[in-house]
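note to self — DONT lose this again. spent like an hour looking for the file last time. sequence + predicted structure for the chain T wanted, 364 res
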Amino acid sequence: MRALAVLSPALSKKIEAKEKYILEIDSLKIPLALIHVPDTEFDENNPQLDNAVLVKKVGFSLNYRDQGVIESAWYKLSKDNQEAYYPIGSEFCGKVVKVGKKVTNLNIGDHVIANCSYPYAPDNVAPGIPSNHASKELEIFHKGKLIKIPSAIPADQACGMSIGVQTAFSMIRKADIKPEQNVLVTSITSNTSLITLNFLKNIGCNVYGMSYSTKGINLVKEHFPFVKDIFEFKNLELPQNLFFDAVIDPFADTHLKKLQNHLNFGANYVTCGMYNQSKEKFNSEASLENLPGLLSGLISRNVSLIGNCLGTTEDLETGINILAKDSDSNIVIDSVFNENDINTFIEKSFNKSSYKVGKVILLY
């Protein structure tokens, strides 16, 4: 089977330069390659696999979080003298090829994606993202960590939706948005924000966007014409009389401090992550100046600062149903590649070459 993996130095030396990609994260140069590894075995008669499912991947995608996974894997593999590897990838779509004897919610032939429910998960399994190895062509999952997707959702969209849909719908739920309220979606071209826009359009709120630069915003406006305006964050181009009742923010360390004076009384500020995730950047840039001043501003406006990690099974199910039934809602896809374009796939996934708007998918 195939897998996109971080390579140990010893294994990297055996692979030709044209067949691997060197990912730069700060000062690190990390070798990645699509490699062939032994198939994952699955014995339906093994009682330890009674509640397990073997999935053959149709395709997968990489997320911003994968850079942190890659960095952590490299710190371990770079010290390994053996020919070792670590498969990567956060999201996938796959086909059920084998099931354990106690699996009743899924059948052979079903198309599935990951259920990343957090902080609780079905069947008392571990909550959260079920695998950091989504690129593995064959992988075993507990039945509670998968959810069947409708045939109305195309395979390329399904390969890049688990984390984004679960997170986006959870953030909107926590923001408690009412009709006519002003809502700001930051990092408007990020995948989380693009998916969020699908679920905001029917609430009847006034949706605004913010982008660090103007790259890609015309494509966002084409996909989501209901967005009233998109502002450039770098120069904080916000009208002085515009205040927001809710903010959906994927990167709190970038936006929170500068947006505090544009929050309405009683606003809900929901965030799901940090931009500076690499160890070098976090250690050098993650300090927040004048924390008492920031907290004072939030307190004086009765602002609720809400952290969000993934979402519930119900969040994912609701999002999937909307995407399946509403022809105007979809996961924005930037490009789709196959294994012959693996280096371009990695470059576009992490914005290392041309700018992207939407998910980048690799189909097997």
